[in-house]
Amino acid sequence: MRPRALALAAALAAATVPSAASALPGTNGSAVIARMVASNPSLISYRARVHVAVHMLNFPYLSPLLDGTSYYKRPANYEVVFDSVPFYMKGFSRLFADMGQPQMWERDQNVVLMGTRVQNGKRLLLLRMTKKIHSDILDHTDAYVDARTYELRRMEWHYRNGGTIVMTQTYRDEHGFVVPAEQHASIDIPHVHAVGDAVYGSYQINVIVDDTVFTRR
Length: 217
Prior knowledge:
Number of strands: 10
Number of domains: 1
Mean pLDDT: 86
Oligomer: single chain
Strand content: over 45%
CATH topology: outer membrane lipoprotein receptor (LolB), chain A
């Protein structure tokens, strides 16, 4: 092929490949979060029972069961209140609440859109979060958001000691709204190796939820 033809072919190829910016539905982390929050616009509140089964994979090999209630109230209130939590499970139980609060991410974290990844055939947007005030414990958090539906599919917490916690989430349609159905957590941090699975029961949609639910810990 002659040089002029080669140059023309290269130009045509470049024109058909979108740039990284144009390929992304949102231009930055804030835009992606806004799209996430905008889903289910007529969903004002809900509550649902949730059952969590935890299995420790190292000593003391405990398998506690947790039952609680998940609460949501627009615009940015989400909480999971467990009926009873063993003292050694206090931190772990917070993970299930952290998955439901994208509106809160930018309050204490810098959120950067890193690009896209493909997992299990789905195109996901990768948001990377770092603490605005330096943390000696947490290095960064990655959130994977479905590029088509803007549903949060996966979160990863990466710790400075080399530990990681990964949580995935699936959804279902209930009363015309897309709501969490199941979550799976994998904990791999020094001295603690465990897995946990949460299953959400029937949802009560657009019900009265007392604000005090979100202020107690």
